């Protein structure tokens, strides 16, 4: 990287070992550099919208300055890659972009290194988030398809190792879970429990996916919707005290 400016010294400060004492080197004064640039431009451009105001405040905090023109190149006032990374994360927090998919990237901030350009990039990211939130996503509604490689491996492994003519052991890869359900009146509605379970299975197709061999010997997966036969499954309710 090419330095933004050079400081001329009469001599380099040395430590007792004869090496350059970096702690004694004078720190660059970016304020003077910014002032010289303003004199060269002869005009200080102020923020024109809320996004530019917030970006200007962040820049002034980082560079310890009172005013920075919105058309100032960040690299001309001492900016570098680490500061750009800091700005990127500050932007995501300041404009609530950290939890959402957006188009803001560090490479774009590098290519457009002014407050005005950064404000435009952030505005585009906000517009992209709004568009994605309002977009009516639709499912592919795929019911049958060829099994994935992982599904084929599990299916064949279960058929070879855990099945026999005498004893059929199904769902060896299923993980049994035990849940404790607490209610205010010690009464559990079986109807509501069945409805809740059906809703979860209906929403997540992988929970109702079955594997089978088609007529050509290809392992297929079927995620058909639930039938009324599921409602015939029964639940056993057991009251367990806290001591147990």
Automatic annotation (TrEMBL):
Gene Ontology cellular-component terms listed: cytoplasm
PROSITE patterns: CARRIER
Residues of the Carrier domain: 46-126
Entries under SUPFAM superfamilies matching the protein: Acetyl-CoA synthetase-like, ACP-like, CoA-dependent acyltransferases
GO molecular function annotations of the record: phosphopantetheine binding
Pfam families associated with the record: PP-binding
Biological process annotations from GO: amino acid activation for nonribosomal peptide biosynthetic process; secondary metabolite biosynthetic process
Gene3D superfamilies: 3.30.300.30, ACP-like, Chloramphenicol acetyltransferase-like domain
PANTHER family, alphabetized: FATTY ACID SYNTHASE, NONRIBOSOMAL PEPTIDE SYNTHETASE
Listed name of the protein: Carrier domain-containing protein
């Amino acid at each position: 990287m090419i330095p933004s400016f050079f400081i001329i010294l009469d001599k380099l400060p040395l430590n007792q070992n004869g090496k350059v004492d970096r702690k004694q080197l004078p720190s660059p004064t970016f304020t003077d550099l910014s002032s010289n640039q303003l004199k060269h431009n002869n005009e200080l451009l102020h923020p024109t919208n809320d996004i530019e105001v917030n970006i200007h405040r962040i820049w002034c905090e980082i560079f310890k300055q009172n005013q920075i023109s919105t058309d100032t190149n960040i690299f001309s006032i001492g900016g570098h890659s680490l500061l750009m990374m800091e700005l990127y994360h500050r932007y995501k927090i300041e404009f609530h972009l950290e939890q959402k998919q957006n188009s803001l990237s560090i490479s774009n901030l590098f290519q457009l290194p002014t407050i005005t350009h950064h404000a435009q990039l952030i505005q585009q990211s906000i517009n992209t988030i709004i568009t994605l939130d309002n977009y009516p996503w639709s499912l592919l509604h795929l019911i049958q398809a060829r099994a994935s490689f992982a599904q084929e491996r599990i299916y064949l492994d279960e058929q070879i190792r855990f099945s026999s003519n005498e004893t059929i052991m199904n769902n060896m890869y299923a993980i049994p879970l035990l849940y404790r359900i607490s209610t205010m009146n010690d009464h559990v509605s079986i109807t509501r429990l069945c409805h809740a379970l059906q809703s979860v299975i209906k929403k997540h197709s992988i929970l109702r996916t079955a594997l089978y061999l088609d007529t050509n010997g290809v392992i297929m997966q079927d995620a058909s919707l639930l039938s009324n036969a599921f409602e015939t499954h029964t639940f056993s309710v057991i009251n367990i005290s806290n001591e147990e």
